[in-house]
Design brief:
Blueprint lengths: L3 H29 L5 H13 L22 E2 L4 E2 H9 L12
InterPro entries: Ribosomal_uS14, Ribosomal_uS14_bac/plastid, Ribosomal_uS14_CS
GO cellular component, one term: ribosome
Protein name: Small ribosomal subunit protein uS14
């Protein structure tokens, strides 16, 4: 089980990313627009730098919903490989069966 503080930090980042998503997208569009004045684009860069770093979507880590584990997480299920195997063995994931050959 992952530390609770790490899990909560990730939740805080998700909330912050959602809160600042529209503002970040607008400023990034201004900075990429070549037709605008360079000073206007530079101001947009400065405003973008003022937004908290944790508001960036890339800082969010995929974590297992059961254990909080950050490595080997399947995006489709949002479960780590360990939790996925345990739940599949118990028959709690519809349509998933243990393979044998």
């Amino acid at each position: 089980m992952a530390k609770t503080s790490i899990i909560e930090r990730n939740k805080k980042r998700q909330k912050m990313a959602k809160q600042y998503a529209a503002r970040r997208a607008r400023l990034k569009a201004i900075t990429r627009d070549e037709s605008l004045d360079p000073e206007e684009r530079f101001e947009a860069h400065l405003k973008l730098a003022q937004i908290p770093r944790n508001a960036s979507k890339t800082r969010i880590k995929n974590r297992c919903q059961v254990s909080g584990r950050s490595k080997a997480v399947y995006r489709k299920f949002m479960l780590s490989r360990i939790a996925l195997r345990d739940l599949a063995s118990e028959g709690k994931i519809p349509g998933m069966v243990k393979s044998s050959w």
